[in-house]
Write the structure tokens for this entry.
Amino acid sequence: MSFERLNEIKKLLNEYNYQYYVLDNPTVSDQEYDRLMQELQSLELKHPEWITADSPSQRVGGEVLDSFQKITHERMMLSLGNIFNKDELLTFDERIREIYPQVEYVCELKIDGLAVSLVYADGRLEYGATRGDGTIGEDITHNVKTIKSIPLTIDYDGDFEVRGEIFMPKKSFNELNEQRKEAGETLFANPRNAAAGSIRQLDSAVAARRKLDAFLYMVPTATEVGCTTHKEALEYIQLLGFKVNPMTRVCSSIQGVWEFIQEMTQKRPTFPYEIDGIVIKVNRIDWQERLGYTAKVPKWAIAYKFPAEEVTTKLKDIIFTIGRTGQITPNAVLEPVRVAGSTVQRATLHNEDNVKHKDIRVGDYVVIRKAGDVIPEVVCSLKERRNGTEKKFEMIKECPYCGTPLIRKDNEAAYYCQNSECDSKKIEQIIHFASRDAMNIEGLGERIIEQFYNLDFIKCIEDIYTLSTHKQAIMEIEGFGEKSMDNLIEAIERSKKNSMEKLLFGLGIKGIGAKMADNLSKVFKNMDALLEATDEQLLSIKDVGETIVQSINRFRNNSNSIGLLENLKNIGLNMNYLKETSLLQESIFNGKTVCVTGTLELMTRKQIKEYLARLGANVTGSVSKKTDYLICGKDAGSKLEKANQLGVIVLTETEFKEEVHL
């Protein structure tokens, strides 16, 4: 009677586990579940010979190994190739459609966890193994059994393998780190690290307490069980009792795939687990087999990766850079690491207090996070990976550029160089020259200028216009691909055609702001006339007083300033006032940001841009949130699509012609 009761309890508990951990639909209270578990454990204690490997009581852990055994996979466990943007997705699709024009894709969430292979023999879990190097993994069966969403038995005769991802839910991760914080232990950097650390515990009781979970997503022998598509294979393993992620979609077009990616990107923060991308697979299994594999990855699947929030690399050195205000910033020099589709070699350490608080040392392995800046920041060091050769951080005492003793201001963590002739002043001048109200060089912002200055690409204003000679070197920097570099070079070339007042303001003459620069330019029409003007002529202009006259005199009597202006003239910068007052007063484009796209009939692209500039518009080569108008010719493409998404006002060429009375 007791043996029959034991089997009855096991059956009930397995059903309750499935309902709770797989279906997320509990049907009994925790108290009822616990009561049955206690009854089962009591029976097994009295009759140890009745204990089986598939008993729900074995999920609590307790098995302790001396080391992990190696397991050779019957079939290679390959990882996927990665893509990082829509263009790469389209390239993948084009390659597939050259062979299979009617292809369907299955899109799945890419769970940020640890790949696992589960092998069953006659319905019982025989072993679970990590991917390892793809050929040989580690036997983690004792820990896999503690994951309650993984069935210990399935209704299947013979050998059966299923693959998936073990992960730690966000809730479990937060609870674990809270416990470690209270115990004074090192916190896990992210759920993936926590899951990997948990599944590789020699003591399965530790893994059991970590509350891991798993989604299954692949059957290597799907055709042997009658499945013809990947979607059918997912449905099949779900019927066997495996947990399959519900956020899966079959798409017949690559546009549908992209829409799925965008939708999941928006929903990503709401999921109770971390995802780091979207997996796209050819649906038909026979087509998968014909497409085949490279040496490392399948040709029929790809992983679209979200921008990495955190990655680990080695900190090789700490160097110091100077900002436009003279602030000195420590920066980490890193082993190159790929983040969000590009290579990162530098990361900010902010200031002395931050480095010392985090105890970051040269030689440490560190976690870096890209928070939208050009240079990512160092989140923390991995102290457990130290070998004793690491060097403690020491703040410098003198400016690395001019040698002036540094000063730490009251109530600030930063150190400053007070030398007015220091390089920091040059950086500030360059930043001002390229700013929106001055030369408006799109893509050459403050942080990028500081970075280019420190890398010796731009040491003075004139160097902006020879930046193209450093194109290859710049493209190796994080955040700069060929397209972004080409856009920057185009913006620099475009700035040469700016009207005189933009250049005058950009020169940074004390007291001459954007409005004053415009007033002076309207009167004198070109730079030479302004520099040759008498004091009386200058004073006769509205709002021009002695202070402005003195500033202009200092500028034109300074050989360096005049030399700069001559150099810019020789480079090809416009020195004349281009705006037409009558047009400006009537123009809706005055002071607005305008982009032009498509094939134009009224005038050439160059002509319409020059005309818009005379109307007072800032003409850009791309559409963004800052764009006010898009002027659209025939066969407009992605710029029109983006403008509609952002709510930018779109004018046809005919509407533009009517607006400006051409």
In short: The first strand starts at residue 70 and ends at 72.
